[in-house]
RNA sequence: GCGGCUGUGGCGGAAUAGGCAGACGCGCUGGCUUCAGGUGCCAGUCCGGGUUCCCGGGUGGGGGUUCAAGUCCCUUCAGCCGCACCA
C-alpha cells in the first residue's frame, strides 16, 4: 500500500472535526494548559508559508501537553477589523463585512488543512457584534476611570490612508501599513492613558517568563529615566522648569533651550517676536520624522530680552528655542550643559556659547564628555570634588530643600492615540452633547452597531465615513435627553486584539466578556508565541488593558501571559522577506497538495532554528516527505500480527520483544530512550529542528536493524505531535487501540539512555590522534591502560615520556608527551 | 550614534557545563533494484596532499588564556533587526 497522504489527511481531519477531538473543557478537574498564538488578520491573500511556523510550533506543544495529561485550551480566531479589508472593499466595491466573511472562511479552510488541534468551537471574530460589544464595554470602563480622554494633539497623519496613526505605526516617517508619507496634523483625538501604567509595565516584566529580547525592547520603548526637575527663574518673572537626568551638572548649565511649542512662549514678549514666530512656523510644518532628519545640523533662535538665572551659580544665561528639544518629553525645555552633552555642545559651538567642564576626565575642546558617570566634579561650588553619584544625591536634596526642584522619573512612552478616521473598526460608544460634553453610552445600549453605509470611502477633510451619515450620528444625550452627536471615529485595530485571549475562555458569554469562573481556571495564558514586530504594539497594549481589567476586578492576575516566545520569519526562496510585490510568496495550498500537511508541518519546523529567520527551500521539503515515506514503509508492513515484526528480520541478532514499560526492543532500547529524552526536551526549548533530526536518526536506525511493534509504537507516539495524520493512520493500521494523540507522552529511563561502550577520544598534546572503545564509567587507570596499549598510540608516543595525563571521564584522554 | 543579534562545508543548519567540529536534511558522486521513472535501497561527500591507511589545515580576520577554544577574553571586519535630538 502506498502512503496516500491526501486521503489519509482528509479522513483524520473530518474525524477530528466531527468528534470535536480537541475541545477544551471548562470546569474540568484536570490541570489546565493555555497555549496561545497570535490570531491572524484574515487578508485576501490567504495564508502564506510564514503563518504555519508559529502555529505548528504551538500545535506541537499543545498536543504534547494533552499527552501529558493536561486539559489544553488552544484556540484560534480572527483579528478582522482593519485597513486592508477596508481598502480592498473600496477598490472592489464590496462591503467589508462580506470581504471579511469570505477571508475568514478561506483562512479557516487552510488552517484545517494543516491539521491544527484548535478548539474551533471557541473561534472568535473581532468584527462580530457579540464580540466587539465587550471591546466597547472595556472602552467605557476606561472612560469611566478617566483613562480615556479626548485631546487636541499633533498627530501622525497618513496621507494615503487619510487617517491618524499611533507612534508605533509610523516607521521611518512612513505608514507601517501602506508606506505613504506621514505628516503632522493637529487633531482632536481619543487617547488612552497607557502612561499611567508605565511603571508597572516595566516592573512586572520581572514577574514573567518572556524571552530577554522582548523584555529589553519593552523596557527601551517605555524608556524609564530617573533625574530631577529644576526650576530656573527668568527675567520675565516666570520660572522655567526643566527635566534633567544629570542634576549634578547644574553648575555647567550655560544656557537654556525651549521647544518651539513651549506654552510660556505665548505669554512672553521678547525683543525679537518676528524671528521667533518664523522659527515656530517652520518647525510646525515639519513632521516628527523631518525634524529628526534635520537632527545633524542644530538650528535655533535666541529669545532676546529674556534671560534665565542658574539657581546654583546665580549667573544670568540666555534662552533659545530649538527643535532639537521635544515638546512631548519632560517639560519641553532643557538646561543645556554643553560640556557633557553632545547635542548641547554642537549647539553651543554653533552659537558661540560658553562650555564649562564640571566633571573631570574629558577634553571639552574636542567634544562633550558624556561618558562621565564615575568621574569627579569640578568647577561646581559645594559639590566640587565629589564623585558623580554622590553629587547627584547631594544636589537633588539641596534643590528639594531650597524648593527649587525635586527628584523625578520620566518615561518615553506616550499615551496611546486611540481613534481612527475609518469605517471598518469598532464604533467608539460616546456621544457629544452641547450641554454635557462627552457622554458614554449606557452599557445596556451595547453593542453600538457599526451601521451599513453606502459609501465608506475616506474624506479629504480627514473625517470618518460615519460622519457623512447624519441619520446615524444624530442621537440623544443619554444624560440630559437633548440632541447630541455620536462619535464618528472608530477604534484602532489593536483594540480587539488587546483582550481576545480572555474571550476564548468563555466564548459564548453574553453577560460578561467571560465568566470569572472561566477566567480563574484558564488565565493567565501559559505560553504565548508571537512575532517580535508586536512587542511594542499588541503585546504592550494588551498588557496595559489586562492590568486595567485586573484593577477593576475583572481578571484574576496582573499579567496576561506567563511565557512569551518569538519565532523568526520564513523568508522567500531568494532570502528576501516574502511579499506579493517580490513574487516570492510560498502558498501553503500548493505545498500541501504536493507533499501533504504532515510534510508541510515537518518542514516548517525542520527548516532551521525556530527563533531565527530561515529561507524557504522547495528542494529541502523532500527530506521531510522522505522521512514520512520511510516511516510509512516501516509501519505499514509491520502489521498487527505479533510475530510479523520479527519474522522479516534477516539479521538474526535482534533480541526478543521486550515487555518493559515502553515495550521497545533490546536492540533499539538505548536509541529509543535517548530519542524520548531528546525530542521531549527539544520541544520545550523550541528546538524543533533537532527534535525532527532525532526522529530521522531513529528511523535510520530502524532501517539498519528492523524494529519491533513496540519500537514502532514509541516512534508513532513521538511523531504524533509533529505529523498527526500519518501517526493516527499507522496507529490504526497497527491496531494499537485508541489514538496516537491520546497516548501518554512516553517516559524515558535515564539509565537506559546511556551506551554501554563509549568512543573515547585520544589526544596527544591536545591534538586528536585516534579513538578507542571503552566501557561506560571506566576509571582513569583502566582508561589509561586501554589507551597506551593501543597500537597506534604507543607507536606515536614512541620513545617519549608521558609527563602529564588529562582524563575527562567518558570523553577523552589527553597525553602530554615530552 | 545607542541597544540587541548573527557570521561554521556547495546549501539549510548541528555541537548540555571549554573536551572527537560539521549531527540531521538538501544537493552532489558511485553502486544496486525496478527499469516507465523526477521511485526506492546501500555507500561516499569540510579542504589540501600522498590515496587500505596516513599527514597537514580548518568555525569572518588578528591576538590572547588553556593540556584542550566554534564555545572564554581583547581587538577588528561584515551583515541583520530594533530605537533614534527622550535632556
Oligomer: single chain
Cα radius of gyration in angstroms: 34 Å
Unreliable residue stretches: 640-660
Task: Report the span from N to C terminus.
Answer: 65 Å
**What is the residue-averaged pLDDT?**
89
Describe the 3D structure:
With 818 residues, this protein is α/β, with parallel strands linked by helices. Helices cover 34% and strands 18% of the residues. The protein has 26 helices and 30 strands. Strands 11, 12, 13, 14, 15, 16 and 17 form a 7-stranded mixed sheet that branches. Strands 2-1-23-24-10 form a 5-stranded parallel sheet. A hairpin with a 4-residue loop joins strand 11 (225-234) and strand 12. The longest helix has 18 residues, at 96-113.
Keywords:
30 strands; 7-stranded mixed beta sheet; single chain; 5-stranded parallel beta sheet; alpha/beta; 818 residues; RNA-binding
Secondary-structure topology with pairs:
Elements: H1 5-19, E1 32-37, H2 52-67, E2 71-73, E3 77-78, H3 83-92, H4 96-113, E4 124-125, H5 129-144, E5 148-158, E6 163-165, E7 170-171, E8 174-175, E9 182-192, H6 198-203, E10 209-210, H7 212-222, E11 225-234, E12 239-244, E13 255-258, H8 264-267, H9 273-285, H10 288-293, E14 301-309, E15 316-321, E16 333-336, H11 342-350, H12 388-401, E17 405-410, E18 416-417, E19 430-433, E20 437-440, H13 470-473, E21 474-476, E22 483-486, H14 500-503, H15 516-522, E23 527-530, H16 538-551, E24 563-566, E25 570-571, H17 588-595, H18 597-606, E26 614-615, H19 621-637, H20 644-647, H21 669-684, H22 688-704, H23 709-719, H24 724-734, E27 757-764, E28 767-775, H25 780-788, H26 791-797, E29 802-808, E30 812-817
Parallel strand pairs: 1-2, 1-23, 3-4, 10-24, 13-15, 23-24, 25-26, 27-30
Antiparallel strand pairs: 5-6, 5-9, 7-8, 9-18, 11-12, 11-14, 11-17, 13-16, 14-15, 19-20, 19-22, 21-22, 27-28, 29-30
Helix pairs in contact: 1-24, 17-18, 18-19, 19-22, 19-24, 21-22, 21-23, 23-24
The protein binds one RNA strand of 87 nucleotides through helix 7, strand 12, strand 16, helix 11 and strand 26.
